[in-house]
Amino acid sequence: MLTFVVGKDGGGDDGKRVVAASPSVSASSTGVSPSTSPTLEDTAVPSPSASAPPAGYELSDDTEGFRIAVPEGWSRSSVASQHGIAVVNYRSPDREHRLQVYQVAEASPAASFKLYLSDQVPKPPGFRKLDLQTLDDGEFTGSRLEYVADSLNGEPDIGTWHVYDERFVAADGNIYAIAAYGPDADGSGSELTNLTTALDWFCPPYTTCDADAGTD
Length: 216
Hints:
Blueprint: H1 27-30, E1 35-37, E2 57-61, E3 67-71, E4 75-79, E5 87-91, E6 98-103, H2 109-116, E7 128-134, E8 142-149, E9 161-169, E10 175-183, H3 189-200
Antiparallel strand pairs: 1-4, 2-3, 4-5, 5-6, 6-10, 7-8, 8-9, 9-10
């Protein structure tokens, strides 16, 4: 798993750009109009050389340059970011599930979460941290935060949200985040599966990755 993300120091900056520490950037919170598309197929064409992701998922060669696997039929939107690539959101048709991809400004995944969990960064209403795992293993550098929130800015009122947010060093040496959001009432299994599938197939912008990864 996580073939596309390689433990490698680099990327990021001095951590002063707080926007990259926030896991939920929306048009309403930034004041920037999002770029939307009716369906994922309108903006993303799977790489012809890549093996197929699991059933129910499709590969997206995103216009921001990265490749990722997302559930079939999800739509895409993006919001300009102060650091690196735009913040890209993939949403289910009912808008109750979301995958978010963005580039992290801080010098490491651990530093990014330290900033996010500090008093310097506002949290969504009802925020409660459930777990924070360090996933470093010598070949991979990353951390995963699990939390719940009563509501998310710009998102529908579905009750409590359950979120997995992973920040990691990718094959290009930069640090990215992929976060999966969904209703806590449905259990967290689908969000964790969406996250790990997206990570399995993530290839950073303009980087050559193993087309057969994610099938082991």
